[in-house]
Design brief:
InterPro entries: Phage_holin_3_6 (IPR009937)
Pfam families: Phage_holin_3_6
Number of strands: 0
Strand content: under 5%
Keywords: Membrane, Transmembrane, Transmembrane helix
Distance between the termini: 63 Å
Helix content: over 70%
Shape: elongated
Protein name: Holin-X, holin superfamily III
C-alpha cells in the first residue's frame, strides 16, 4: 500500500517538475521571440509602432485565453450510484438450486430410458 503511495507521489513530483521546466523554457522562448519581433518591427517602423503591435498581440492572446477559461464548457460530473454489495450466500444458494434443477432434469430423463 505504501509502495503505491510512494509511486504516486514520485509520479506527481516528476510531472510537476517537467511542467515547471517546460514553463521556464517556454517563457525564455517567448522572450526571445518578443525581442526578435521588436527588432524587426523597429527596423520597419518606429519603436512606438513595435511596442503597440507587440502589446496588442499579447493583449489578444490574453483575451482569447480568458475567454476560453470562462466559456463554461465543462459539464458537472454525473454522480454515480454506489454499487449495492450482493450477499455472497445468495449467489451460492442460486448456484446450488440451478445445479439441483439440472440434476433433477438429468435424473428424470435417464429414468425414462430402459
Amino acid at each position: 500500500m505504501f509502495e503505491r503511495i510512494k509511486h504516486d507521489a514520485a509520479e506527481a513530483a516528476r510531472k510537476t517538475a517537467l511542467t515547471l521546466v517546460g514553463a521556464v523554457f517556454g517563457t525564455v522562448g517567448l522572450a526571445f521571440l518578443t525581442v526578435a519581433a521588436w527588432l524587426v518591427l523597429a527596423e520597419i517602423q518606429t519603436t512606438q509602432f513595435a511596442a503597440l503591435v507587440i502589446g496588442l498581440a499579447y493583449l489578444g492572446v490574453a483575451g482569447v485565453l480568458i475567454a476560453l477559461a470562462s466559456s463554461g464548457r465543462s459539464k458537472p460530473p454525473v454522480p454515480v450510484a454506489p454499487a449495492v454489495p450482493e450477499n455472497p450466500m445468495a449467489s451460492v444458494i442460486a448456484a446450488f438450486l440451478q445445479g439441483a434443477q439440472a440434476g433433477a432434469q438429468t435424473g428424470a430423463s435417464s429414468a425414462r430410458r430402459p
